């Protein structure tokens, strides 16, 4: 068996990743494919925490005229829907999974308790962190950075619809340049859209590298674990 580069990782999935080609709602075939790839790395002995965005259901910034706090709470609830969908897909392929939420909803998920989350990971369970940080004005990128620091993850695997970090939008500009490596400060100074500045600063302060890669091929998750050349690595 190939040697794994990491033991405990934080997987950050955008909500759009679960929407598939439609870009909205849930594509359960996509969720199942992602679940199968997560199962493969769990079977390799990797401890996996996950954060899923909610942009396929609700993106707070699009709530025109709506109070920002209310819109953000709606976004947090959207992440809970995605977390439960991913949990179901994982359990269908035999992966023991727990959802922990920053907003208490004990009928459907556990509250976030750091020590309990750590124990689940040690027992080989995937832990999905939902409802953001529980506070408005913070993105799920910040949630991923915060939870990664709390569970002592070795890296954040940032799975996106693009295959890395570019100097400009590759969907709009054919001459967009892809970066293989970047530092946290370069991300902040150049305003590159990897994670928001709060999340990037958290990763920098806690020395958590970020690997940005495309989820067009779900097998990229396994390649990332094996340390293959992939996407863009952000580190100090």
TrEMBL record:
Catalytic activity: UMP + ATP = UDP + ADP
Regulation: Allosterically activated by GTP. Inhibited by UTP.
Annotated positions binding ATP: 12-15, 55, 59, 166, 169
Any one GO molecular-function label of the UniProt entry: ATP binding
Involved pathway(s): Pyrimidine metabolism; CTP biosynthesis via de novo pathway; UDP from UMP (UMPK route): step 1/1
Annotated GO CC locations: cytoplasm
Location within or outside the cell: Cytoplasm
Domain Aspartate/glutamate/uridylate kinase: 7-213
Enzyme Commission numbers on file: 2.7.4.22
Protein family membership: Belongs to the UMP kinase family.
NCBIfam families, A to Z: pyrH_bact (TIGR02075)
Protein name: Uridylate kinase
Organism: Clostridium vincentii
Lineage per the UniProt record: Bacteria, Bacillati, Bacillota, Clostridia, Eubacteriales
Gene name of the record: pyrH
